[in-house]
Amino acid sequence: MSKEETAIGARLYLALLIIPVLGYGLMNMPHYAARTMGANGYLAELIAGLIVLPGIAAIYFLARRFPGQTIIEQGVGILGNLPGRMTGLVYTVNSLIILTMFTRDTVNLVNVYFLNRSPLYAIAMILLIFSAFAASQGIEALAKLNSFLLIPALLVLFLLTAFGFQNVNWINVLPVTSPNLHDYFKGGMTVVYIYYLFGATAMTLPFLKPIKRYPRLVGGALLFTAVFFAVYAFGAIGVFGDTFLYRYAWPSLEFVRTIDHPFLFLEQSGLLMLIDWVTMIVAGTAYLYYAVALGSSRLTGTLNYKWWVLILFPVKLVMVLLPRTVSESKMVIDQIVKYGWIMLFGYPIFLLLLAIVLRRKGESDNGS
What is the pTM (predicted TM-score) of this model? Predict the structure, then answer.
């Protein structure tokens, strides 16, 4: 079985956690949060962070029990060859669907706001070519790319978020608490998808050295992104209100488009936000693309992950273009938001519990 022999340090891995999560989670997040929790939607992101903790913990403990193995190989070792490969196939297909549909959402966004005269297939081709090239360079190159983007991308986001608060109407974020406690859990589950790329660490965690630093890294990244998402949702709901927010397909972009500081060159803040976000989403797409290609390689036991990047390219392109309209793609994304967590976070918990019951362990690895 072809394996990539490489290792990345804590600083690079931290960037690999933050940039893809922000890129994938940011644009639709206020819409889903406000739809369930109303004016309290900014609390949903914090609750969702608590909800995914067991799944993230399971990924770590599996990596300690099965050093050097991805979740595909862990499944085979715990469930047996055929059942392990079948569930691994479901896991890989689930990740591929998440990858392609959020890529389609990016294509829709660029087409509507930036390149409205360009055909969808041309935008999709450009985005997929960039992400495929980056994915083919391997996990170390992806980590360095995300590390390079970390400071400038976050700086732009922070500035735009801060300036966006000029139009917040504090009445829109009241009441502070919900009388129905069930709404908090339901709201958290609605936006769990913003942390989906933390689930992808089940494929890339073996490359972190030493692996014992993962809890601190992922804990820091989770806290940072959860707080940022909550602040951003607070601003978006504060500007538009939880009911008016539904008028926008991408409310996060509309939030920064309300900025009006022409002498600070922010009259085109929406364009600046779009460029920053698309840059992050390309990096995130490449990361998940790599995870899917690596999973396909480990699942089949044939060909290097670079070949699978090439093989999956036409499959991705067809899947991205399959929905005929923005509405159709949003309907599919709604289903991903509801059920995508089952394999990304539920499957590792299932494997860990089964490994404990059956007393399954991999070979020891001093480097872990």
Answer: 0.90
Instruction: Specify the DSSP class assigned to residue 1.
Output: -
Which residues, in sequence order, are CB contacts of 184 under 8 Å at separation 6+? 37, 43, 44, 47, 178
Phi, psi of 116 (to 5 degrees): -75, -10
Contact 346, 149 (CB under 8 A): no
Phi-psi region of 58 (alpha: psi -120 to 50; beta: other; left: phi over 0): alpha
The residues, any chain, with a CB within 8 Å of residue 46's CB and separated by 6 or more, are 188, 226, 227, 230
pLDDT band at 19 (very low <50, low <70, confident <90, very high): very high
**Which residue stretches of the chain are H helix?**
10-25, 29-37, 44-51, 53-65, 71-79, 81-113, 120-136, 139-164, 182-190, 196-199, 201-204, 214-240, 251-257, 269-300, 305-321, 326-339, 341, 347-358
Q: Directed axis angle between helix 139-164 and helix 120-136, to 10°?
A: 130
- Residue-averaged pLDDT of the chain: 87
191-211 pLDDT, tens per residue? 999 999 999 999 999 999 889
d(CA 318, CA 81): 31
Q: Is 269 exposed, middle or buried (0-12, 13-18, 19+ CB in 10 A)?
A: buried
Q: Which two tokens stand for residue 368?
A: 């872990």
Phi-psi region of 114 (alpha: psi -120 to 50; beta: other; left: phi over 0): alpha
Structure tokens that stand for 355 in this block: 């490994």
Within 10 angstroms of residue 206's Cβ, the number of other Cβ atoms is 26
Separation of alpha carbons 235 and 256, rounded Å: 9
Lookup: tokens for 272: 């600046």
Rounded CA-CA distance 90/310 in Å is 20
Q: What is the pLDDT of residues 264-298, one digit of tens each?
A: 555 566 677 778 888 898 899 999 999 999 999 99
DSSP 8-state code for residue 28: T
Q: Cα–Cα distances in Å, from 261 out to 258, 266, 269? A: 10, 5, 9
Distance CA 3, CA 205 (A): 14
Query: What phi, psi does 353 have (nearest 5°)?
Result: -60, -40
208: phi then psi, degrees, rounded to nearest 5: -80, 130
